Amino acid sequence: METIVASSVCICVHLWFHFAVTGTTIRYMQAAVIVNAHAESGIARFRWPRVAKMLTRRLGQVEVRFTGKAGDAAALAHELASSGFDPVIAAGGDGTLNEVVNGLVSNQ
Fold first, then answer.
1. Is the peptide bond before 49 cis (omega within 30 degrees of 0)?
2. pLDDT by residue (tens digit) across 26-62?
3. What is the CB neighbour count within 10 angstroms for residue 75?
């Protein structure tokens, strides 16, 4: 799993480096994004539309879920992975990424 920082919003996605550098479109069965719009004191909410367009261009249609409170990202990651979404992408800060990773690991 590769991680990059796009406008200070962490986007974590399997094989990110490959399509970010080569411009290759990667098709997965169904991608999902967990978004913490409150990251960076709410700035992430304004950056999300641009990031969403980029992800849709590269991955096709994606399922988007927004967190509402602490702990939501872990539960959403577990739910999405259990439902067969691949990849599950974290969009937010380091806390969001931590929760998503923990939710995915709990799915193993």
1. no
2. 555 688 999 998 888 888 888 888 888 988 888 888 9
3. 15
Residue with tokens 């990424």, as numbered in its chain: 97
**What domains does the chain contain, in order, with CATH numbers?**
2-105 (3.40.50.10330)
| One-letter amino acid for residue 51 of the chain | V
CB 30 within 8 A of CB 86: yes
Residue 33, H or E segment: strand 31-35
User: Are 17 and 23 contacting, i.e. CB atoms less than 8 angstroms apart?
Assistant: no
Q: Which two tokens stand for residue 57?
A: 């261009």
Check if the beta carbon of residue 105 is closer than 8 Å to that of residue 75.
Answer: no
pTM of the model: 0.73
41 class by beta-carbon count within 10 Å (0-12 exposed, 13-18 middle, 19+ buried): exposed
